[in-house]
Design brief:
heterodimer, A: mainly alpha, 2 strands, 2% strand, B: four-stranded mixed beta sheet, 17 helices
């Protein structure tokens, strides 16, 4: 059963997964361009760190995009078919959802593996100045976890009804509206900062996306 | 013209201008005296105005004392007394007896209502919203416990205020990054445990003319001249030399950098590194370090710091470098338990997906 679900999901999301895998493979190489061993004057430590840091912004973006697109691709055909196919299967709902989730996770392993390969290759080819080191494995673990969290978040949202999505959006919109009104009335009220710190600081759900994503660091 | 007439003419020419000059000097003196009187009067008025403003600043304020820390603050819910007590304990721990110098600088605080739209009165007082908690307020107070007035030479060497050490680990991590990345040969050699290079990079020795060549190598000098100071150097009479430097002439780069105003050349290790050395000296020398430092005779800062810390300059540098290397920042800042947290959130969101209302039979 899992193989069938996996195959179906591969068909729906192969474009996203393939492009994501290619992007994950080439991103580390792009982030160390100019530091290659065969370049006449390789980058100095500070310049290399700045370059790696600027490209590092793209890792969480790629992880979030992959999670979002694969989660949407996972549920889109079911939504279009009004879940008739799923309901016709001799499976309890929880098991069907688990199969869908598991298939998505398996597909998302490809970009993570590609990132590991690309990162190992890039750190091997780069002339890393003394005091700096490459961290391909740590970066890949972080990327894999970020993809997983993003996929789970968007999987849960996609699995819900329009009403659920509407409720989530209403809560977010309401917070922003209250904050804007408070600012307009010059009232010292800060709602967004605590919410932001809950979400983005450990042990918040999105903390994995924050911080520096460095392939090469001190 | 007869000879007699000529003599008269010469006599008049000699006498009349002298009278005119005398008249002119008297006039100028009178005017200068008048200006002096006006200036003195204006100074008195300005002093009165200042003292009135100061009196207005401190009028109606409570005086809060914690050790040598004196704070004048208007009545408000600001937790000033406990914050001052906490700040003083930190100040005293870092500066030791030298902290008594702060008694000369009372801090005037104007606590403001965070919800008010009424603009605050201008003045010299430090304006703070009164919804600040004790921890934040303590940090603010520590930020004003500047002892640099006690020894301007220390301030000049540091390149900033002499404040109680906060976030030392963070600062040392920052210094580690500077040691690895600073575009300076002295710093790179210091990272490789060359103490003489550390001494150069931290400006601990006497100021010598070859400091520039000891700090920066030829490539670094060219980068400094042609990139960092290009706006200043690439114009006027220096433009030709600038082009020569950019083309690879090291002597031109040296001339250009030496033509910079004194003190404006970027130091290879900045405030954070120098302050961390000061912290190391305090860690070695104990609470009386600052007292000894301020008592040492003016001279190279390395010898002064070593005397204050009661160790040799070499030991001080060795300990500083070891502290910095130990504080190496974590490259990928994820704690090990974060992996389990991320997996936990994944399971939590997946469970939300399981409980989806899509298939609910209604």
């Amino acid at each position: 059963m899992f193989r069938v679900v996996l195959y179906a999901q591969w068909k729906w999301s192969r474009l996203v997964v393939t492009l994501g895998t290619i992007a994950a493979f080439i991103l580390p190489a792009l982030s160390v361009q100019g530091a290659s061993r065969d370049v006449g004057s390789p980058l100095k430590a500070g310049e290399l760190l700045s370059l790696v840091q600027s490209w590092g912004v793209l890792y969480p973006v790629l992880a979030a995009a992959l999670g979002l697109l694969v989660a949407i691709a996972t549920w889109a055909p079911d939504h279009r078919g009004r879940h008739v196919h799923a309901l016709s299967l001799p499976l309890p709902r929880w098991r069907y959802v688990l199969l869908r989730f598991g298939a998505g996770v398996v597909l998302l392993a490809a970009p993570a593996v590609a990132l590991l390969a690309g990162a190992v290759l890039a750190t091997h080819l780069a002339a890393i100045p003394p005091g700096l080191e490459g961290y391909p494995v740590a970066l890949t673990i972080r990327f894999a976890l970020a993809v997983l969290v993003a996929y789970a978040v968007f999987f849960a949202i996609s699995a819900g009804t329009t009403r659920t999505a509407g409720a989530i959006l209403t809560v977010i919109g309401g917070l922003i509206l209250v904050q804007v009104l408070a600012s307009a009335a010059d009232v010292h009220l800060d709602l967004l900062t605590p919410v932001q710190s809950i979400l983005l600081n450990w042990p918040g759900p999105l903390a994995i996306f924050t911080g520096r994503w460095m392939l090469i660091d001190v | 013209m007869s000879r007699r007439a000529l003599n008269l003419f010469f006599m008049a020419a000699l006498v009349l201008p002298r009278a005119l000059v005398g008249q002119h000097a008297d006039l100028v003196r009178t005017r200068a005296d008048s200006l002096l009187r006006e200036w003195q009067q204006a100074s008195v008025l300005a002093a009165v105005q200042d003292s009135l403003r100061h009196a207005a600043d401190i009028a109606g304020r409570d005086t809060v004392r914690a050790g040598a820390l004196t704070i004048l603050v208007n009545p408000s819910p600001l937790p000033i007394a406990p914050a001052a007590a906490k700040a003083w304990s930190e100040i005293e721990q870092f500066f030791g007896p030298a902290a008594q110098w702060l008694a000369r600088q009372p801090l005037v605080i104007q606590a403001l209502d965070p919800d008010t739209t009424v603009p605050a009165n201008p003045g010299d007082a430090l304006q703070i919203y009164w919804d600040l908690n004790q921890r934040e307020l303590t940090r603010v107070l520590l930020g004003f416990a500047d002892l640099s007035g006690a020894d301007p030479a220390v301030r000049d060497w540091l390149g900033g205020p002499v404040l109680p050490g906060l976030d030392s680990d963070q600062r040392r991590a920052q210094v580690y990054v500077a040691l690895v990345t600073a575009p300076s040969q002295a710093v790179r050699r210091c990272f490789a445990d060359d103490r003489a290079a550390c001494r150069d990079a931290l400006s601990l020795g006497p100021t010598t003319s070859d400091l520039l060549t000891r700090w920066y190598g030829p490539d670094e000098r060219r980068d400094l001249a042609t990139l960092r100071y290009a706006g200043f150097l690439d114009k006027g009479v220096r433009a030709r030399e600038f082009r020569s430097c950019a083309a690879g002439s090291d002597s031109a780069c040296l001339d250009l950098l030496e033509s910079l105003p004194p003190g404006s050349l970027e130091r290879p290790l900045d405030y954070a590194a120098r302050f961390s050395l000061l912290e190391t000296a305090v860690a070695l020398g104990g609470t009386r370090t600052f007292e000894r430092l301020f008592a040492t005779a003016p001279g190279p800062m390395g010898a002064r710091l070593a005397a204050a810390a009661q160790v040799s300059e070499d030991s001080l540098l060795a300990r500083w470098r070891s502290d910095v290397v130990t504080a190496r920042p974590k490259p990928v800042p994820i704690p090990p338990w974060a992996i389990w947290v991320a997996l936990g959130w994944t399971v939590a969101f997946m469970t939300c997906g399981l409980g989806s209302s899509r298939w609910r039979v209604s």
